[in-house]
């Protein structure tokens, strides 16, 4: 996880191959956990805001629909243990079939990140959900430790 960093200031310079490698190496739950551990809640909020600025209202609506579909099966623990790249590819296939056109890869990344941020923020708010998918969030005590 150390070689990949995502902050609101570098979203537009995001290396697609680097992100795809990161997705391939981690389960989807670990991808969600990355945001909870590496960034503070405010930074994740800025990432979310920057993603919204990069997408059209139509694309935002598509993601809302995909979140609703995903929420139907969200209680399947095996889903969270899948490689993150599988969730990414599945989401892009669903979006491309609904739009009936190919996505530009960078736009697909933004859509996937926006989709995932929904579960990052749900994890902040819901301890039972965090426990269910097996992720930890950054704690105040851990961030105050002297290194």
Q: Could you explain the architecture of this structure?
A:
- This protein is an all-alpha fold and 147 residues long.
- It has one domain.
- It is built from 9 helices and no strands.
- The two termini are 18 Å apart.
- The model has no long low-confidence stretch (mean pLDDT 88).
Question: Tally of extended strands?
Answer: 0
- How many DSSP H or I helices? 9
The helix fraction, in percent, is over 70%
H and E order: HHHHHHHHH
How many domain modules?
Answer: 1
% residues in beta strands:
under 5%
Structural class, from helix and strand content? mainly alpha
Low-confidence stretches: none
Biggest β-sheet description: none
Q: Provide the residue-averaged pLDDT.
A: 88
Give the C-alpha Rg: 15 Å
Distance between the termini: 18 Å
Assign an overall shape: globular
Keywords: Membrane, Transmembrane, Transmembrane helix
Transmembrane segments: 108-125
List the helices and strands and how they pair.
Layout: H1 16-25, H2 28-38, H3 41-54, H4 57-72, H5 77-81, H6 84-99, H7 105-125, H8 127-133, H9 140-144
Summarize the entry for a quick read.
The protein has 147 residues and is mostly helical. It has helices at residues 16-25, 28-38, 41-54, 57-72, 77-81, 84-99, 105-125, 127-133, 140-144.
Provide the descriptors you would attach to this structure in a database record.
single chain, about 150 residues, mainly alpha
